[in-house]
């Protein structure tokens, strides 16, 4: 007991000593080529106003400057910062960066100024990183002391892992009430240490999944290199993680202390720690044994699910619309998953109902489309999507997970696609800069692949009939998925076109022959694809009606009128979205090829429009491609709002 008391007392005095230290905890990294020309001038000019801009914009700021030697910068301060402390921190970081990285094109730094109770970040490069997960390079600053007197490393590992997971989960859950939406600070009481502090923060331009991944990589790096050290920090361009045995940031004063998880065995019957030399083997057991148990449980759940037990809320069900089996979801489960379809979980609203984000009991995120009750059209859409999507599988089509049709409720359950729809990016001045030409090209190509599958490669022949930017969903990697098949039509494989008296879809995206005569075919989808493509190139929404009087003439032009006019005048640069971030992988010739393809897709004459397979060949060709010369385009005038939809 005496020896243990001495060790614990020594540890306590050491912790108290650590708490008296106030210093700068800095992570700097210089990388990339040396710059030449006026890159340094652009850097200095951009950084000169950066501290004020960060404070004035809620704690986060991104900007770029220059043409030939363009520099891009992202900077932030920790949530809850004081304005002057934030400015001072960034000023110190800028000065130190210029001193430590005088000629490199790229650098990032995370600095904790404990004297001023603030954390700040600076990252500049010669290419845009805004909205991109940047994991490399990284910095790591471990404390020099090793926790040698901690007698039970197995227990310490369990408690440390629980603390880290709790902090990470909170940090990677977006708090949209703050510009600095990814942040968490925790204070945990371990069995043999009174207070352990952890803090995590991501740059707010990331998606939640990217923030989670970034922070996990930081945690893993610390464990790989410096496990057993008494605290430290790991910084990556997109995120930062630090833990210590003292309050290194003032926010910990307002953080509620929580107890670490209890011991997983009861002394003295079992000796949880025994000897530190057994730690490594026990650590492996801690990972492997639960994994085996989880596997057994998982197999049991699968068996239970296949027996169609009613208590899971999900059953394998016979699909009455096409004779196939799929998942039938319990309404109570879906209501719980969406917090009773609360407005906070609402993702959007369409002509047939609303879409909500939900989380199943197993943690899987889902998108839940609840169709409007008593709507005959909604019932038709429900049957249509269940019929089609159960038989369609493609990476560029949204996946239908199942359905619910209890009473008068008709609900469709899809995979959750985290980055919402394309229109939320292309028509938003603040988000358009995330769509680099690389990203735009990949989205256009992905949508074309999805259409090719519908038109030619699937076991069915499908005409979508409502292809538009709001029906293109973007996953965590900004890859597109065509969605909303409620208005799609199924053709026989030898059928090429059809006609309907019920014109459905969205004005501005409808082909002339479909809007006027109800005639539709695969070329109708090609027309809609062309409109979407030209919107992505120009950053302009397709408008077919004159705006209110008093606006500038150019603003009154519809998209097709605008593009054709600039194309025929040879003013190609004026067609291109000025907010699109440049890319080293996409040339001006490739952007011009996209415009050319878009004009061919929106030809009034159906026979002059290319097939989607021809479009994909042109997109994938890196050599000079011969394409037909487009003729003057026509544009349809809608009887109401230019973006209005028809559903009956």
Automatic annotation (TrEMBL):
Write down the Gene3D superfamilies for this protein, in alphabetical order: Gnk2 domain, C-X8-C-X2-C motif, Phosphorylase Kinase, domain 1, Transferase(Phosphotransferase) domain 1
Signal peptide as annotated in the record: 1-26
Q: What's in the keyword line of the UniProt record?
A: ATP-binding, Glycoprotein, Kinase, Membrane, Nucleotide-binding, Phosphoprotein, Receptor, Repeat, Serine/threonine-protein kinase, Signal, Transferase, Transmembrane, Transmembrane helix
Q: Where is the Gnk2-homologous domain?
A: 19-129, 141-248
Q: Which SMART domains match?
A: S_TKc (SM00220)
Q: Which superkingdom does the taxonomy of this entry point to?
A: Eukaryota
GO MF assignments: ATP binding; protein serine/threonine kinase activity
Q: Name one Pfam family in it.
A: Pkinase
Domain Protein kinase residues, every copy: 341-625
Question: Mind telling me which GO cellular component terms the entry cites?
Answer: plasma membrane
Membrane-spanning residues where? 284-305
Subcellular location, record wording = Membrane
- PROSITE patterns of this UniProt entry? GNK2 (PS51473), PROTEIN_KINASE_ATP (PS00107), PROTEIN_KINASE_DOM (PS50011), PROTEIN_KINASE_ST (PS00108)
Which residues of this UniProt protein bind ATP? 369
- Annotated membrane topology: Single-pass membrane protein
Q: Please list the GO biological process terms of this entry.
A: response to abscisic acid
Q: What is this protein called?
A: Cysteine-rich receptor-like protein kinase 37
